[in-house]
Design goal:
This protein has 436 residues and is of the alpha/beta class. It has helices spanning 12-24, 79-90, 100-112, 125-140, 166-169, 180-183, 194-204, 229-240, 259-264, 290-293, 312-326, 331-352, 378-381, 386-398, 419-435, and strands at 46-50, 53-56, 61-64, 118-122, 144-148, 186-189, 208-213, 243-247, 270-273, 284-288, 358-362, 365-369, 401-402, 411-412. The strands form three sheets. Strands 4-10-9-8-7-5-6 form a seven-stranded mixed sheet, sandwiched between helices. Strands 1-2-3-13 form a four-stranded mixed sheet. The protein has a three-stranded antiparallel sheet with strand order 11-12-14, covered by helices on one side. The relative contact order is 0.17. The structure holds pyridoxal-5'-phosphate (PLP).
Amino acid sequence: MVISKEQSMERPHSHNYFQKAKALMPGGVNSPVRAFKAVGDDPIVVTRAKGDRLYDADGNRYIDYCMSWGPMILGHGNIKVLNALRKAIRGGTSFGTLCPNEIRLAELILEAYPSIELVRMVSSGTEATMSAVRAARAYTKKDKIVKFEGGYHGHSDQFLIKAGSGLTTLGTPSSPGVPEAFAATTLTLPYNDFKAAQKLITEQYKEIAAIIVEPVAGNIGVVVPEKGFLEMLRELTLKHGIVLIFDEVITGFRISLSGAQGAMNIKPDMTTLGKIIGGGLPVGAYGGRKDIMQLISPEGPVYQAGTLSGNPVAMAAGIATIKEIKSRPLFYKDLEKKTEHLVYGLKDAARLAGMKITINSTASLFTPFFTDKPVTDLSSAMKSDTKQYAQFFHRMFEKGVYLPPSQFEAHFVSMAHTPHDIDRTIKYAYEAFKKL
Ligand SMILES: *Cc1c(COP(=O)(O)O)cnc(C)c1O
């Protein structure tokens, strides 16, 4: 989409950076959705972030609802996290040995997640999910896995089948480079479809090692599971000897301290974490039942390793983030209130502007869909008018509000979002809706 000169902010430095980046990196970015392809225009080039604000290379500032795609639940540049990082760095940045910080973060994770009896740190959510599946396959001695359409579990081969966000945005059903034989081991189901899940599992359980699911879907935009859906998956997997993996890379320490599983009181066999547990540094983790996790090398035969796994600096950011959350008894209540205020405000703004939209939200996550129908799975999410989303994105961007540059993403509210900025967001949204 092309925006006219007088509407656009001045962004000459960003433009120059992007031109240079394109000559150096595929598409000029190191992760696809950052390139703004779904909304058009040059991408944002950020030089600094603080609180709920991003500052670009041209000195424009934005109220941020992307929040680095989820990790920054305390906001950007939180002082406690920065202090913990300074302290950690003074002691050295990587040892390649066991260090106290990884033990401390493991302790914090096990305390918050009773389903996790042993945990392994890795450096990304992608590593966490692919390693969890490997463990599940070894444990069950079965090969196939089940995932949900639009579910995103990182970019390892086996998950790039009807995967969400970046791939949905670009309209790629799966990726070239993934051998058909790998794709054949991944079965997919529509999210929230009780009957389809029941049928597939009861018919093919003898071959299914694991079911991996986002307990709140976040990569088709936010979609909340229907009442009883995850409970049904839990029941069927227990009955049929299938490992149930909750991918809580977004929802972990986000929906509640104990993630979606704590809020919904469901105990998966394995859990994958990322984003918030790294407090803005590259961290992932997977863990679960002792009898499964004991298979991981060196305790067991399932190989998985990492040069920078459990990195002392990255661990320090995660520890400081979780400690800060725990130090405020009303943390999640307050964050949810902020989000409710914003979401109600946006719904009101849309109604007053005569727009029929659907906003899905839970805890501090939300997504506006440009459809008047409920969004409960990938196909209903795809009914959203993505051109309208792109226009909405641009109108907000011009006012200094940075939304995720794609329809199929979660929007994140942090503890650093001020009432003033939230009210301004609602006001700008009203003006944007009126012009759509
Ligand atoms: C972000 C994400 C991942 C992948 O994590 P990376 O750190 O980007 O590799 C996996 N699962 C879910 C649910 C995610 O949102």
